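Re: that backbone. Tokens:
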């Protein structure tokens, strides 16, 4: 009789621990999915820099932020979160990372850019990409067209 009671208690405890472990696994999966959904979706805007003088990457970053802030204010700047991730001074190719919501804001603000690092400069946005590698793949093709513009 005692053996049967102990066996039943052991069964109940093992069943409870099994169900608890399954619940923990479900919670972990749900947290991972929620974290993935919260992840910010980014886009990479390929643009051509047309300038009279030499422009540094840091100056270009501050000029892009200044143009966004001038047109849309601090709220637009916070929404777009622009960051120059690639700059080729020879080809004049610039890749700017932004949020999905900020692509159109950034493209319109880049047209306002008139000066960077004290030199006359203009940024012409060409296209938005989903990954940095796909945007970088288009830079060599861009070189032959940029030579005609400069």
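Recovered sequence:
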């Amino acid at each position: 009789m005692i053996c049967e009671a102990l066996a039943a208690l052991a069964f109940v405890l093992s069943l409870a621990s099994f169900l608890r472990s399954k619940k923990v696994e479900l919670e972990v999966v749900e947290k991972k999915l929620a974290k993935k959904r919260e992840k910010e979706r980014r886009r990479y805007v390929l643009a051509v820099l047309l300038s009279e003088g030499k422009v540094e990457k840091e100056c270009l970053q501050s000029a892009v932020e200044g143009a966004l802030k001038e047109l849309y204010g601090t709220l637009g700047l916070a929404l777009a979160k622009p960051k120059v991730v690639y700059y080729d001074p020879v080809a004049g190719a610039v890749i700017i990372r932004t949020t999905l919501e900020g692509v159109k804001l950034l493209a319109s603000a880049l047209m306002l850019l008139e000066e960077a690092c004290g030199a006359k400069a203009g940024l012409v946005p060409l296209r938005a990409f989903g990954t940095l590698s796909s945007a970088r793949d288009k830079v060599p093709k861009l070189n032959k067209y940029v030579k005609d513009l400069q």
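The chain has a mean pLDDT of 80. The radius of gyration is 27 Å.
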